[in-house]
Amino acid sequence: MTQQDPSDGIEHLFADTVRDTMGSAVYGDWRSIHNADAVPLAFGFPYPESFPNEELAAATDSLLSSEPERALQYGGGDADGLRDLVVDRARDRGIDCAAETVHVTNGATRAIDTVCRTFLEPGD
Predict the structure, then answer these.
(1) Is 14 exposed, middle or buried (0-12, 13-18, 19+ CB in 10 A)?
(2) Fewer beta carbons within 10 Å, N or C terminal of the chain?
(3) CA 103, CA 108: separation in Å to the nearest integer?
(4) Where does the pLDDT of residue 12 fall: very low under 50, low under 70, confident under 90, or very high at 90 and above?
(5) Which of 60, 44, 43 lies closest to 52, judged by CA?
């Protein structure tokens, strides 16, 4: 990792591979795992008793009733709206952040992967 001026925030902590690709079309697109000892986290088996089944059923019923033509469609998502929601919830908890500092991922595994690839060099 190359040391840089820490007054620029935390980017001086980023791995060289991240800094080298920031702003390019391939930023964050490092999905292949080459280490045979790596543990894939693509699947999980949460504790079934922790599922909010009644709440999920009510939400599903409400959505299917109110927007039946859109409810099951695949959409690109509204990352900006989600970022704004994250910022609002963070502020409610006393965390000062801005939408441009929130990175939305497609699931927890992608978030963990992004954080690790951001701060760790190959072999760390």
Answers:
(1) buried
(2) C
(3) 12
(4) confident
(5) 60
Euclidean distance between CA atoms 55 and 10, whole angstroms: 39
Do residues 116 and 16 touch, judged by C-beta distance below 8 A? no
DSSP state string for the chain: -----GGGTTGGGS-HHHHHHTTSTTTT-------TT----S-----GGGS-HHHHHHHHHHHHHH-TTTTT------HHHHHHHHHHHHHHTT----GGG----SSHHHHHHHHHHHH--TT-
pTM exceeds 0.90: no
Q: Which of 27-31, 34-38, 111-115 has the lowest mean pLDDT?
A: 27-31
Position 87 pLDDT exceeds 90: yes
Burial of residue 105 (CB within 10 Å: 0-12, 13-18, 19+) is: middle
